[in-house]
């Protein structure tokens, strides 16, 4: 059926609203997972405050990872040991700047103002290796990359596990584990596999964690989660930087100095999870099928069924006679009706004639023996019959009528 103009407008508005909400609201919420500015259960604001309270310097990196890959200028000072660097840094910002603002950008806005190497860079996000890919040359210079939230295979491990460490019991809620191998150094694990492990690359190394929620705000009451992650990132002894660029926070002065324009819509959509795009496509397909197979407007009521009083009476009478097992009455009534019908067919009128006269006339007309008709319609043979015998008799009477 064709849709009127108003129906098309309503359908278009609904589809546009669905696309906007799915493509913007859902990815935006996922983008903040693991951010040290986050106050939600999946944020890391409480861990960042914990590091400050411990006197450990943690700074926020709000530039692309590529800005760190160029070899450092030989005139730059070497990295200060973490114990001495802690005394030279003040406390970080307690409130998040708007993404794209210059507040608390971590590194300065000068093009050459990069952190001294070696350093430790921490990236926290679901599927973090898609956002922060390890660079071998950068690692070989002695730098450390900590990736919290790498994709690992699903195993038979229970969803919630409490794993002992020197820093205290660490609560892990994931069934994902990495299989041990000779090149991996286990940092946290159980019989099902590794939850945290490290891999040496030249003078540096990569530390990976299977869950993005290792030290999230939801685990601030657990005894060992915060201290275990703190030990992972501070153990190398280098200044610690947390990547906030992957969560949408930008240094605008740096962006302007390098000529980078704000991220385009297509670049933003390219980072949208494939599963979300599939769900959107299925929803749009379902709406299209629904629109093509159903008319808009009030549904048409079904017409009321027509009642046949004669048929209803006959069915009710038949039910009563069957329950009363009154087959004699049924046979007697049908015999009289068939005799009258047969008389009319033979031209004998409507006045009931005796069965002998009727059978002789029927024999002359059909050439069949009169005894056959008398056996079928003889009242003396009317007796109580079972259901099968009654149906057989009725079928023979119907055959007689058709002849």
UniProtKB/TrEMBL annotation:
Residues 1-25 form the signal peptide. Keywords: Signal. The keyword Signal applies. The keyword Signal applies. Residues 87-116 are annotated as: Disordered. Residues 136-233 form the DUF4350 domain. This is DUF4350 domain-containing protein. It comes from Thermoleptolyngbya oregonensis NK1-22.
């Amino acid at each position: 059926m064709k849709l009127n103009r108003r129906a098309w407008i309503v359908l278009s508005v609904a589809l546009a609203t669905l696309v906007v909400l799915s493509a913007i609201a859902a990815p935006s919420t996922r983008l903040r997972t693991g951010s040290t500015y986050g106050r939600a259960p999946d944020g890391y604001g409480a861990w960042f405050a914990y590091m400050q309270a411990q006197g450990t310097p943690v700074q926020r990196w709000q530039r692309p990872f590529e800005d760190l890959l160029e070899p450092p200028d030989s005139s730059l000072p070497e990295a200060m040991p973490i114990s001495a660097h802690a005394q030279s840094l003040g406390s970080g910002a307690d409130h998040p700047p708007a993404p794209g603002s210059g507040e608390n950008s971590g590194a300065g806005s000068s093009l050459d103002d990069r952190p001294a190497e070696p350093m430790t860079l921490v990236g926290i996000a679901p599927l973090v290796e898609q956002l922060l890919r390890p660079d071998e040359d950068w690692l070989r210079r002695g730098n450390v990359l900590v990736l919290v939230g790498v994709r690992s295979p699903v195993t038979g491990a229970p969803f919630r596990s409490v794993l002992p460490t020197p820093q205290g019991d660490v609560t892990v809620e994931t069934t994902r584990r990495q299989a041990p191998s000779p090149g991996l150094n286990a940092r946290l694990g159980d019989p099902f596999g590794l939850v945290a492990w490290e891999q040496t690359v030249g003078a540096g190394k990569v530390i990976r964690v299977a869950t993005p929620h290792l030290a999230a705000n939801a685990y601030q009451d657990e005894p060992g989660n915060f201290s275990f992650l703190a030990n992972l990132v501070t153990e190398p002894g280098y200044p610690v930087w947390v990547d906030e660029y992957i969560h949408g926070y930008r240094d605008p002065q740096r962006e302007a100095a390098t000529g980078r324009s704000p991220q385009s819509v297509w670049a933003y959509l390219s980072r949208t999870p494939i599963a979300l795009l599939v769900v959107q496509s299925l929803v749009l397909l379902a709406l299209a099928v629904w629109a093509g197979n159903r008319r808009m407007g009030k549904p048409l009521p079904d017409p009321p069924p027509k009642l046949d009083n004669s048929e209803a009476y006959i069915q009710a009478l038949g039910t009563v006679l069957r329950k009363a097992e009154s087959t004699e009455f049924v046979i007697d009534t049908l015999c009289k009706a068939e005799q009258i019908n047969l008389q009319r067919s033979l031209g004998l009128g409507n006045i009931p004639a005796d069965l002998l006269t009727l059978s002789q006339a029927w024999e002359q007309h059909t050439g069949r023996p009169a005894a056959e008709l008398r056996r079928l319609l003889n009242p003396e043979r009317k007796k109580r019959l079972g259901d099968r015998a009654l149906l057989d008799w009725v079928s023979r009477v119907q055959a007689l009528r058709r002849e």
